[in-house]
Amino acid sequence: MISNNKFTSSDDLSLVNKTKYSDEEYLVRVKLAATYRMVAHLGWDELIYNHLTARVPGTDHMLLNAFGMRFDEVTATSLVTIDMDGKIIDAGSTDLGINKTGYVIHGAIHKARPDILATMHVHQEDTVAVACYKEGLLPISQNSFIIGDISYHNYEGISINAQEQERIVKSLGPVNKNLILRNHGIVSCGNSIEEAFFFLYQLVKTCEIQVKMLSMVGGDISKLDIPDKQIRDFSTRTAASFTKQGNGKKEWKSYYRIVEKLDDSFKN
């Protein structure tokens, strides 16, 4: 067990890693487990469902949650390692296995987009509401401008069919990092766990704002103030330039400090 250690944001785990995993993999596991706790703390989890995943450094394997654990129970060593075909490589510290839908959605993206190192999927209520809205996400808030372009994937039922993977990848496209699953929820991706969480946060916030705004105007889009595309694009570029050390790094660390103070058992 790894308790009461002082790992915060230095990324130096050489003195605290007492697992069978390399320091590099353990760091990813800690970050991902911490992010599960962040999502739970924000109230975006749903029982034992939904998934946050990350690629194991230097491999074609990815980490996801054991099927049966709440997000607030996930730990670094409970994460399950699977390959890009969905085969379990390392079951982690439980015998719970995985939810196949996690592989279908996340595996498709990780396999097709090597630039994406982390993906995060939630069913937060406002995101599902926007996913059901024919007009989709409206460019009405600064949060929506920060996200940039959004992709959409039509609903095909609960995602258990591996054949849907090709269509998910096609829907996301070669460069976008945010995907709205129609009638279902959202997926945010990143070239790091930090970036994926940053986009997830912004996308959830954007959906919350949109649902509230539409209720204020009775659903009449003509009453909304939508800035022109030039201004929106300027905001997207400006936001991307704020954090030189990497998109979402500082934001993620600020929330890491919250969950670490509350309960650092995710490091175990």
From TrEMBL:
Residues 30-211 form the Class II aldolase/adducin N-terminal domain. Signal peptide: none annotated. It holds the Pfam family Aldolase_II. It comes from Dictyostelium discoideum (Social amoeba). It comes from the Eukaryota. NCBIfam families: PRK07044.1 (NF005451). PANTHER family: ADDUCIN, PROTEIN HU-LI TAI SHAO. This is Alpha adducin. One of its GO terms (cellular component) is actin cytoskeleton. GO terms for molecular function: actin binding; actin filament binding; structural molecule activity. GO terms for biological process: culmination involved in sorocarp development.
